[in-house]
Design brief:
Layout lengths: L4 H9 L4 H12 L12 H14 L1 H12 L5 H12 L3 H4 L2 H27 L8 H10 L1 H19 L9 H12 L8 H27 L5 H37 L17 H19 L3 H30 L3
Helix pairs in contact: 3-7, 3-14, 4-5, 4-12, 4-14, 7-8, 7-9, 8-11, 9-11, 11-12, 12-13, 12-14
């Protein structure tokens, strides 16, 4: 099965180099299997992203409220949400939009990172450095943010809809399109792009390092993946929390403006303008300091740290199961 008589004789005599033995064993293990391409990784990536999105949705609701209302604590945010919508609000208020958005976001993120790495450096991301992995992850977020921006705005509008102005995600999308056109669905794009670059870059930059550190603390592989994934996700949160606060405030105001007919419709290119985003950052910094810029950091740490932990556990295991089932290597 892939070894010549010459090789077999030398293996028996103990004279074949270990590297050649490893190559022959790998050929034997992959006999009858097809080499996987980039698209073959999509099903397990989408599966892991979908599961993560559902599990972490309640934390995302609390995070969104805290960040769009700087100074609001997690407890107050949760209490206010339950008073307005009840427990079923976690199902009715933006669940579909958020699960769809987050699943697409994470699927594109984990699909694009190795593709971008290979395109830039000419080698798989498994052979890259922490810097190359992080940079590839950050660059790969451009198509991700373009894809998720409409759903991000729909989800935020639903989560902040205390007065019941909208009857669902479709109603929100219809309202935005009517008052702001298609570009209205891209409100806050500049801030979201900065946010995704920082979190994704930070996650891929540190994940392997954390795995190495955790291997010296705990011996269980599953525990190592959980802890390192949470730590990498929390690191990304430490880098991008301020961006989420600022873009949430920008989007909240822009969505509120859609109900005021006296406010002129912004230019279609307005979502690309980083001015409001950085202007909001300066305003919050001057009035509330770093505390204001990191409003909701607790729920966000739980949300994205937990997401990182689940992704670190599910992605490699889903990939292995899928490859084994489909005869891929």
């Amino acid at each position: 099965l892939g070894t010549s008589n010459f090789d077999q004789g030398h293996i028996a005599a103990g004279r074949l180099p270990a590297s050649l033995i490893a190559i022959d064993l790998a050929k034997m293990a992959n006999a009858g299997k097809r080499k996987a391409g980039s698209l073959d990784t999509l099903p397990p990536i989408c599966g892991g992203a979908f599961v993560t999105s559902i599990v972490m949705y309640p934390a995302d609701v609390v995070r969104a409220i805290c960040m769009s209302n700087p100074g609001t604590g997690a407890g107050a945010a949760l209490k206010g949400f339950l008073e307005a919508h009840g427990v079923m609000g976690f199902v009715k208020q933006g669940l579909v939009a958020e699960v769809t958005r987050a699943s697409i976001s994470r699927a594109i993120k984990f699909f694009m990172q190795p593709v971008v790495h290979n395109a830039i450096y000419g080698k798989p991301e498994t052979q890259g450095t922490p810097i190359s992995k992080g940079l590839a992850g950050a660059i790969g977020t451009v198509p991700e943010v373009i894809a998720i921006s409409p759903l991000e705005n729909i989800k935020l509008a639903a989560q902040l809809d205390k007065d019941g102005k909208f009857s669902g995600s479709a109603d929100i999308a219809k309202h935005i399109m009517k008052t702001r056109g298609f570009s209205g669905l891209m409100i806050g794009y500049a801030g979201m792009q900065v946010r995704q670059c920082l979190w994704t870059g930070g996650f891929f930059l540190t994940l392997d390092w954390y795995k190495t550190q955790m291997s010296g603390i705990v011996s269980n592989k599953l525990a190592q993946d959980v802890l390192s994934g949470f730590a990498a996700g929390a690191t990304g949160t430490a880098l991008n929390c301020w961006t989420d606060v600022c873009r949430s405030v920008v989007q909240k105001k822009a969505l509120a403006d859609t109900f005021d007919a006296s406010i002129p419709r912004p230019s279609p290119l307005e979502p690309l303008n980083p001015g409001p985003f950085f202007g909001t950052a300066a305003e919050i910094m001057s009035s509330r300091g770093l505390t204001g810029l990191y409003s909701g950091v607790g729920p966000k740490m739980v949300h994205l740290g937990g997401s990182g932990a689940i992704l670190a556990v599910l992605m490699p295991r889903f990939k292995t199961m899928w490859f084994d089932m489909m005869g891929l290597y």
